[in-house]
Each structure stands twice: as structure tokens, then as C-alpha cells.
Amino acid sequence: MTGRCAGKLALVTGAAQGLGRAHSTRLAEEGARVLCTDINGAGAEETAAKINAQLGAGTAFAFQHDVTDPTAWEAAVDAARENLGGLNVLVNNAGIGVGGNIETCRFEDWQRCFSVNVDSIFHGCQKALPLMREHAPGSIINISSIAGLIASDTMPAYNASKAAVWMLSKSIALHCAKKNMQIRCNSVHPTFVDTPILDGTARNHNLDKGVLMDKLARQIPLKFVGEPNDIANAVVYLASDESRFMTGAELKLDGGISAM
């Protein structure tokens, strides 16, 4: 195997579409073998099939996976052991958004947002670390959001959950360093990216997709919306040994928004 991630054994959650599919594909293109997991099992299978068609059978595998369920995490880690032979890269990508301001957001939606965005990372790291230690050095990559660093009045649940991902990542990083595990942990903070989520946003606001993209681009200093590989390329860097001296850090991929 060749590539920047040659020999890496990766599990990517939320891999059925969008960023998760891009992360899985780019890691595989750089030499990793990948377990693609998602609650949408058919979508995860499609991602793995596309990767194998491009790069050869046995490069990617799929697993249906509810990231909010600790028992499902145990099964996912077992699937990594069985299909990949181990695990040393964990990409916690699965996440959801919840609408409503502090007066209109329903508590059950708040709880669901934290369950998917934060509890999943707690469960995932807790269940995966024993296997990752056996195959160190390793890297945990938690996909947060620029919304975890910059607040909005319209999405308190999303803001708070993604901020929790940011700080949880630092705690995990320090724990792994203190225990000399040779496992790093960092968070990634994208802004608007052209994924199927934006298709839904356009529909919900009765907007043409192009009109929405222009509107979002005007909010970004670089004046364009990101592509999935703009984020996936950063995941490749964090998964690779190129980033071996980086842990407990946040990587902002926001077109300059946080600089304003």
C-alpha cells in the first residue's frame, strides 16, 4: 500500500453521504482500509461499494451503526477488528442539526442533538480506545463545526453540542497523552459545505439551491462554499503521521469567518 495513510485502519461514522463519504473515500485513496458506518446501512454499503470499485475489493467495508447506542459501538469496534484487523483511526463524523431558538427549541430536540453529536463521541472513544491502543500510533478526529466556536441566536442546541465536541476532544487528547497511548485527538470545525444537507436547507426555505449557495458564500470572506474534499483533505492530514505533533487542537476550515 502507498499513500499518506498507508497501513491505517479507519472507522468513519456518518459515512452514508456527504462529509462522511468524502472522509472515507479520501482516506482509502491515501492507502487506508476503511469501515464505513451509518444508521443508514444501505448508504454505508453504497459508500463502501464505490470505494471498492475504485480501489479494489477489501479496501472498504460497511456496518449499520446507531452511534447513540453504546452496545452498537461495541459491535462496530468488533466489526473493525474482524474486517480491518484492528483500528488506529477513528473519525467521529456523524451529526445532526436542530432548529429553534432558546424559546422555541423543544427539549426533546435538544436532547437528540446532544445524543447524536456528543454522546456518540463519548461512547465511541470509550469503546474504541482499547483496540486503538493495540494498533498505536493512532488518531481520533472529531468533526465539530465553526458553530461550536461562533454562536448564533437561532441554533442553541447545535452551538452547544458542537462546542462540547471541541472541549471533549481536548480532554480526550490530554488523557491519551498522560497515559502515553500514542493516540492523538483533534477537532475539525468546518463552515458551510456543499453536501446533501444544503439541498434540504434549500427546500425548507423554498429557495433555489444556487440562490442559497450565493447567499451562504456572501457570509464567507473567501466568497465560496466549501466542497466535501476541502474537509476530507484535513482529515487525511490528521489521520496521517504528518500530524504526529498535533493533539488537543482545533482545525478551523471556515473560509476566514472566525477571523472577522
Description:
- By secondary structure, this protein is α/β, with parallel strands linked by helices.
- The protein folds into 2 domains: 9-191 and 230-259, 3-Layer(aba) Sandwich (Rossmann fold); 195-225, no CATH class.
- Helix content is 47%, strand content 14%.
- It contains 8 helices and 7 strands; from the N terminus they run βαβαβαβαβαβαααβ.
- The chain has helices spanning 18-29, 41-55, 70-84, 107-134, 156-178, 196-204, 209-217, 228-239; strands at residues 9-12, 33-38, 60-64, 89-92, 138-143, 183-190, 250-253.
- A 7-stranded parallel sheet has the order 3-2-1-4-5-6-7, sandwiched between helices.
- Helix 1 packs across helix 8 (228-239), helix 3 (70-84) runs parallel beside helix 4 and helix 4 (107-134) packs parallel to helix 5.
- The longest helix is centred in the middle third of the chain and has 28 residues, at 107-134.
- The protein is globular.
In brief:
This protein has 8 helices and 7 strands; from the N terminus they run βαβαβαβαβαβαααβ. By secondary structure, it is α/β, with parallel strands linked by helices.
